[in-house]
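Minutes, methods subgroup
Present: GH (chair), OT, SY

1. OT presented the first of two proteins processed in the latest run. Sequence and structure tokens recorded below as shown on screen.
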Amino acid sequence: MSDHSNPFLEPSPLPYRLPLFALIRPEHYREAIELGMHEQRRAVEAIATDASAPTFENTIVALERSGELLRRVMPVFENASSADSDAAIDALEVEFAPLLAAHRDAILLDPRIYARLVELHAARDELGLDAESAQVLERHHRTATLAGAALGAAERAELTAMNTRISELTTDFQQRLLADTNELALHLTDPDELAGLDAGRRSAAREAAVSRGLDGWLITLVLPTGQPALAALERDDVRDRLLAASRARGCRGGAHDTRAALLELVRLRADRARLLGFDSHAAAVTVDETAGTPEAVAELLDRLVPAATANAGREALALAEQGTASGRRPVEASDWALLSEAVRRERYAVDLEEMRPYLEFDRVLTRGVFRAAALLYGLTFAERADLVGYHPETRVFEVFEEDGTAVGLYLLDLYTRDSKRGGAWMSSLVEQSTLEGTLPVVVNNMNVARPADGEPTLLTLDETETLFHEFGHALHGLLSDVVHPSVSGTNVYRDFVELPSQVNELWVLRPEVLGEYAVHHETGERMPQQLVDRLLASRTFNEGFATSEYLAAAVLDQAWHRLSPADAAAVTDVADFEHRALAAAGLDAPLVPPRYSSTYFAHVFAGGYDAGYYSYIWSEVPGADIMAWFVANGGATRANGDRYRREILAPGGSRDPRDSIRSLLGREPDIAALLERRGLA
């Protein structure tokens, strides 16, 4: 019998349908997911057996409305598994991942539903649909076709089995990686080992150790290869140990090794692509992105590699000179961050550590991130201490238009903890949809080290940029203005979804924003203009390294996912394959390891960016051009913000993003802005 105390079974009575987090228990997820799948299957069966001719209303709108309970529970469950997991959540994820994959396939591959979609699509020009409805019909038909709905019964059954196993493996990869990342945190007990870390970082490391019941200090690992502390730790042996720990994730053998899951994923994805009629998984993915083909992706990556590696080579020479001058050992990969900051200080008189006292988190958030949104879109933010988040550290803000009209809720979960996966991300708990009468509830997650109680949270410049970046995703969700939930907010092409987040990074150093938030947390003095000017002058410094490490990861992703089934089956050694792929691309520089090595590449083996990690640089082509458009037209003005909101943020996936970009710029995007931004011109 259903437990009617389950907070998911009815729409939440809280403002904006914020989930009743204080009442949610693991058993509620089980009941709601099981009942949600049952209810959606029943609704879809009614659509499939409808004797009347298919119409947009009785097929597309009915499909859009189906799964209401799943839309309430699944975003909350997925957020819990990513941001605040425990043994019970992990077990439920393992149990339900294959069941949910099979459930999605049962709907997506239903030949009766597909027949209705085909009939509607063939008659689309006679249906009198508005632009959004036409796009929604197109997306439903194309998604089902590319997913394999036109296959025969035997092939559909084989496909479903593959998809089920793939979902199991991505869950397995994520859970193993999180466990290994926690286990490999660097435990230090000698105060001398902390040399170079400022008081804030020491406090955070001490707090991390205390949280695990350890003496001394603990430097936890972030998701990428490069760890922030590498730029400050003075002892070579400590940096070596930290980088070694970062690169060891997933490849040490034992319970947390990710290699078996990785190899099986690659093989299954290649087999599935062949079943669907594609040469590779990359071809199957990019056909439904703005890139179109893996060859188009390769053309862009190949164009950028020579300039990026040449810049990185010049940077390496400068580091070698710096190391020699200071009597250090020959440069190694673990030295790069430390020495590059020394070169930055020498060449530009910029010390990024010198900036941290000016980047106190609360002021960055309220007078930086929120102020930029106010200047551009007229938004205001009011913290709602009366609304409970999913974790005690989660903060909840109500968002309003300038005239007081409600927009939605913004949740922020800043600090790292063992129950949270690495990295930073945005997710939606409730999506905007006029069809369902819902306003958005969005979440930003980061992994900033928590200082001791009573001490300020001082961000690095990189963390500040990350906060602006992730808030760009949040704006995409908050300012969505569509009818249908399937095209709301960030439900867009994967190689477009990063554009709003990248564009929002522009405001980090714009004077109309920076001057308000970059204030010394003790003295109240604004960041000196000469420091800002020197920082701007140094913006392309170390971009050879940054672009090369990114390109190496993007190339790895493509290499794994452009394999044919036969070639995928032949790969047995992950490290050897990775080395050969990087060497073939000219990206095997020992001093510049890839941003993510395969065994901890969560984006592509657990995070939905498989064959799509290229999308960051792909979307940066129009993104950088749009940043230049903002600057050329006066910066953070309401006129600019309103136009950008109308053309890029509000439509979500309700129109082709290429049309949105052309509407904003008045032309096709130009790669020149990207090349200049990354110092590759």
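2. SY then presented the second protein from the same run.
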Amino acid sequence: MERSAPAGGHEHDAADHDHHHDAHDHGEACSHASVAAPDMPEATGDGYRRFHVSGMDCASCANTIQTAIGGLPGVSDVRVSVARELMSVKIEDGKANLEGIADAVRKLGYAAEPIPDDNSPVRRGTDPWWQAPKGLHAIAGALVTAGGFAISTLWPAAGDGLFTVAALLLALPIARRALSAARMGAPFTIEMLMTLAVIGAVMIGEAAEAAVVVFLFATGEVLEGYAAGRARAGIQALGSLVPDRAIVEEMGGTREIRASEIRPGMLVIARPGDRVAADGVIVEGRSHLDESAITGESMPVSRGPEENVFAGSVVIDAALKVRADHGAADNTIARIVRLIEETQDAKAPTERFIDGFSRVYTPLIFALAVLVALLPPLVAAGDWQTWIYRALALLLIGCPCALVISVPAAIASSLSAAARSGILVKGGIVLENLARAELVAFDKTGTLTRGKPLVTDLHAANGDAPGLLALAAAIEAGSSHPLAEAIVAAAARQAIRPPVATDVRAIAGRGVAGVAQGRVTFIGAPRFAAEEGPIDAALSERIAAFEREGKTVAVVMVDGAAAGAIALRDEPREDARKGVAALTAMGVRTALLSGDNPATASAIGQALGIDDVRGGLLPADKVDAIRRQAEGRRTLMIGDGINDAAALAAADVGMAMGSGTGLALETADAALMGNRVGDVARAIALGRATMANIRQNVAIALGLKAVFLVTTIIGSTGLWLAVFADTGATVLVTANAMRLLRVPRPKG
């Protein structure tokens, strides 16, 4: 059989089809870095020290911490990640101490703890909400407020005094946080607005309402914390899929160690029912594995010697011995969790706009509240108490929490849901681009197709197709060439036992020859087979038909006569047709950009229903095609993550197939861990659902504030409903965002 040069050399003989990857530059590194998350230092050697900070619910919390800590002496840079509950602080030598910084964070109302120099994780238990400080505050608020109403009913004269004491005591922790933030340069916080509103309400004789306001605020904080914790838990749950302990084989025996102690090269034992403790290669055993946590594939897959396995996979029916490829900190699940947490810190354009707007919004509302308190009494002789009351209610509407959380809550839920379904999406900007995708361009080999040729047709001159396959398999046995392996595999599937061949030799650039059943046999491309002996007209016509279908043809010559032909082709993945059809139903155009010869590319494209098919493309040609097609519309390029680097970089979104390969995880904008073509449409549907959810959240946040802004000014609503405009809206937008924890199915 002809062993041709790699595709891309512009020689497209029949036997060159499909058994090579599309024409690519394998040495080209992917340069797609459009969605890099902001750098969050992880090591202490660069001058940064890390702190675990809990209690943050949204970006507003992070902004308060960043502003306050950034103003401390000796601190030159502060970076806060809500998703990872992490603060990194750059400290000038000798000008600040870790405990002082942690104490400053605690004064703002958050728990803070320095992370040791060895970068080991800080493991903190999560208290039930009723044991946490905010939970205790809410419970105390409920008891005191209820008690106040009960006593004032029985003893009206004591009512105002009791409510005044209750309101001030309940507001004390909030006031402390507000003053700490103000002293550190962050005056416009929800705590400050709440403190001013409570003090003002008490001063104008609305003590009962002030107490109710503090109680509602405390309750809202508990609900916000619970919702934020649920969203964060979706990511953290992935990390818990890797077991804490592992059994390793050493010097003929076994011992149990912590999974964090696994190092590359160790032999890890995974028994039935166990989760595999490390990424690696099976060296002994065969078993079905549940890989749904990584790839999203619900059906167990069979894995055996020399096949890769992922940490977190569940062994079902037989023990496996796995040689670890990575340590615990670098296995596939750990990298997925790390990447998702990092990309949550990267702000999408919509989120940056909302964040900027919120910074202006609060001071504007504060100024409006001052005007409402002063202008009507001074200009129109309005009642001072009435207009001060309305101004205090406006202060509560000025908190931007619901608005600030509206975008990241939706994005965090989407990223979590996508990861659990085997779709790794790296950031909000990618979700926005996916939502706007109008064209999806596919690579062929390894993307739409399996990446390995299969025998599709057998044509024997004497009608004995099994005999032809047995003879070919005998000659090809032992060869590592993809076409040879396909022929041997086809014989095995049909339970054909090939005879033993002797004197087998590869004829460079032409084919392979040997002796089987006492007959001299040659297998090669049609043009070289014709040099070995005559090929009759019927077989020649059949060969031509195979080639028109984009198939590679191997002709079997026996004792100088044509015995038949074997057709092979890299066939489409099982879900490729449905995946392309789903995109078409969504109104998304499709294209196939392949380095394979045009006949093969056209045959695959037509079989799958792809709109635009182009074959014979070099890597530079693919880039040009992407750029031409991308004019005026968002383009998504799907490749194998290695060979299509330049084209992936040229598209608005580069999406890699490849079951968690290092390059797929690290360089592409998104990766389809389960290698399913149908996940492309699912990712676009997720992007569209995310943007719709964000629009809904912004409408809820601004809509409620606008309604209560008007009703407060005209006097229809008071302080406690103004609290609902913020804390209630925050809970609503978070609950709405959590609907995205289930990946939407593409419509159509």
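Chair's summary of item 2: Residues 1-39, 118-125 have pLDDT under 50 and may be disordered.
Next meeting: continue with the remaining queue.
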